Structures
1.
Amino acid sequence: MKVSIIGTGYVGLVTGTCFAEVGHKVICVDCDDEKVKLLQQGGVPIYEPGLEELIQKNVASGGLTFTTSTREGVEKSDIIFIAVPTPPLPDGSVDLSFMEGVARDIASVMTSYKIVVDKSTVPVKTGDKVVETIRRYCKSQVEFDVVSNPEFLREGFAVGDFLKPDRVVVGVRSQRPVTAMREMYAPFNCPIIVTDINSAELIKHAANSFLALKISYINAISVLCEASGANVQEVANGIGMDHRIGRAFLDSSLGFGGSCFPKDLSAFIKISEKLGYDFALLKEVQCINARQMDRFFKKIVDTLWVLKDKKIGVLGLAFKQNTDDVRMSPAIELCQRLQKEGAILRVYDPKAMEKAKSLLQNVTYVADMNSVAEGCDALVVATEWPEFKKLDLERVRKVMTHPIMFDGRNLFDLEEMERLGFIYKSIGR
Ligand code: UDX
């Protein structure tokens, strides 16, 4: 199939590359000149495991091209995916101006039947607005269909998630675009759920909110575990083995972050409000998440007492493992709070240090994980990078002024840490 993807951010780039990988002819369009140049030369603006190789391979074979021209993208393709940012407004609702702008651009250059697919996360009923906009700005009476096709990619695992999806959701207003959408996704051999557009749009917000709810649920349980001497990991294993619950997303932490969950939760609460429903359950999910960070911070203060001039090592800056993304990262928030109290920070992240530099100044960026604790009064684990489990704990203990570790991700074994002589404080155990 001939497709174009408008918006070469995180979602657009992974989508375009993976479609090219399975044999579609893909044009990625972005208004950022510099980014397009970088991509044309085989460079990649984000770190995502496996993505760079796939881009280079498909650019070389001619199946994947990049341009700044929406006209070129629209003229040369039958299906146009919109993957532009839908950032939050100050009141938590969604800024749809990029979406509207792209719908207008597409309409102004469309001269034959096109399927316009929304991949960005948008409030329910946005599809109706896109239809209205295209109709209004289209110069001739060209036929078109609008489809909602939300993405469920996790950063750090996006290529795998795209190539092997649990399901693909296709929201339509009529049957006409269904065959083409099935053909687009046929190479992935996965269930395709065809719904109306409003349901497809709701599925995305409902899915992300439910996942965030799972994390806040286990984080609330972690409070009970700490108060009663139970172990949250044992509890998560015990409830997670019930197939109706499932073990995934039950890892207690210092709170969830990233560019999706916090934004989508606020948006969904606003959307519900506009539809006349007070989604108090989701407001509590947000509160539990904020309190989880407060509780972790308090643990540090309670142990170290005065933070001013204390030297603290921090492992992890990304909002989670396998990514260089620091947007809404709990690790960055924690560092900023520690700095505010006068702590002196030494920090390390396998991939996110460059991106962290704009948010976190006056800290020492350390080149390897085993040196981060040198001369420190405490060490904090803030991101669940798997390599942190391979930390040389004997060495770390020896180079620290005091062997105190605060683990916001429960990476280490309690008995082992005690045996090694650490004062070790984790979450819910
Ligand atoms: C999420 C959704 O998973 C994905 O389907 C959607 O398309 C975009 O939003 P992402 O933001 O990449 O993906 O990260 P995810 O892996 O879901 O983790 C989000 C946050 O929750 C991270 O900060 C992570 O560390 C935290 N988390 C996750 C926990 O604290 N505990 C868990 O058990 C799982």
2.
Amino acid sequence: MSARMVLLGPPGAGKGTQAVRISERLSVPAISTGDIFRAHVAGSTELGRRARAYMDKGEYVPDSVTNAMVADRLTEDDAASGFLLDGYPRTAAQVDALDDMLSERGEALDVVVEITADADVVVEITADADAVVERLLGRAAEQGRADDTEPVIRRRLEVYAEATAPLAAIYEGRGLLLRVDGMGGIDEVTDRIMAALAARLSV
Ligand code: ADP
């Protein structure tokens, strides 16, 4: 059984937490572009230096940089028969790049899970966004993320709404999209995602 999966969802929907849990249950690596970028920043690599300028502002790192990094990561042995991408693709150009990376290997995505949150409909910054900003400011205090300041979080939500929210429709058009309600307890959401995946992938 292969499970080549993408997890979509707005900042603050608990995507990273769910990605790790789902990947453990399905024994595939969780590949988080945000985590890879942060590791490069922490290690002061050239890639980290380039990425940081964008991350600190809540902007996306350029597609060329991100695509090359993901292509490289997907050639590692652990991703041979499956993976769960968290935070990638995030732009329509990244969707195309991922298609190309996989088709070169004779592979394709099996499923795209979208975790929906109240703030998922935040096209403008509204009252709903305030709850997400609060949640992410709480995470900033716990994890010390430099990009979790209020103006940067608001920018991340805007960029998400502009560039990334439309990706769900692309995958829906291909019949790959599963929408899962991300509200509720962490275990509850994991169970919902697993149930939706089980129905789709026969896992
Ligand atoms: P969030 O918690 O906002 O979902 P991530 O940890 O996934 O954030 O990513 C943090 C930052 O890393 C993003 O704001 C962006 O600057 C950069 N980044 C991560 N993934 C991508 C991507 N696929 N394309 C461009 N930039 C990315």
